């Protein structure tokens, strides 16, 4: 993850320099400056995540030239079985977007359904009491 952290730090630095230059020369046009600032912040978050992962977990087998293939063998991750929460979240997001067009009441209903779907997905496989 150290290589990825350096890579995204470079991307963030590029967006920062570009953002400062754009704001300096563009004058009063705020849209480009806002987009470049958000790009800088997103690249910074990814770089920070990669750096903290490297610090916490150490070097991965992919980062070492002397690693063996079998070091990455085994279970990759947990993939959940069927779940009704993704369609519920999609329905809520659809109602959110339609609420922008048709009215606040539909937007609020969509927000509630979307939040129920997101919370359900996040907590579906959490063991209560363990």
From TrEMBL:
The keyword Lipid metabolism does not apply. It is a multi-pass membrane protein. GO terms for cellular component: plasma membrane. It is found in: Cell membrane. One of its GO terms (biological process) is electron transport chain. Its EC number is 7.1.1.9. InterPro entries: Cyt_c_oxidase_su4_actinobac. The chain crosses the membrane at residues 5-25, 31-51, 95-123. It is an enzyme of class 7 (translocase). Keywords: Cell membrane, Membrane, Translocase, Transmembrane, Transmembrane helix. GO terms for molecular function: cytochrome-c oxidase activity. Belongs to the cytochrome c oxidase bacterial subunit CtaF family. Part of cytochrome c oxidase, its function is unknown. This is cytochrome-c oxidase. It comes from Streptomyces morookaense. The lineage of its organism: Bacteria, Bacillati, Actinomycetota, Actinomycetes, Kitasatosporales.
């Amino acid at each position: 993850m150290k290589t990825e952290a350096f890579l995204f730090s470079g991307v963030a630095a590029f967006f920062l320099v570009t953002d400062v230059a754009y704001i300096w020369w563009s004058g009063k046009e705020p849209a480009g400056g806002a987009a470049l600032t958000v790009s800088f912040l997103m690249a910074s978050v990814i770089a920070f995540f990669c750096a903290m992962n490297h610090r916490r977990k150490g070097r991965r087998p992919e980062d070492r030239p002397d690693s063996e293939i079998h070091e990455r063998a085994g279970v990759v991750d947990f993939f959940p079985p069927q779940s009704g929460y993704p369609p519920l979240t999609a329905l809520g997001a659809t109602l959110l977007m339609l609420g922008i067009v048709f009215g606040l009441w539909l937007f609020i209903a969509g927000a509630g359904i979307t939040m129920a779907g997101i919370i359900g997905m996040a907590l579906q496989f959490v063991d209560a009491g363990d």
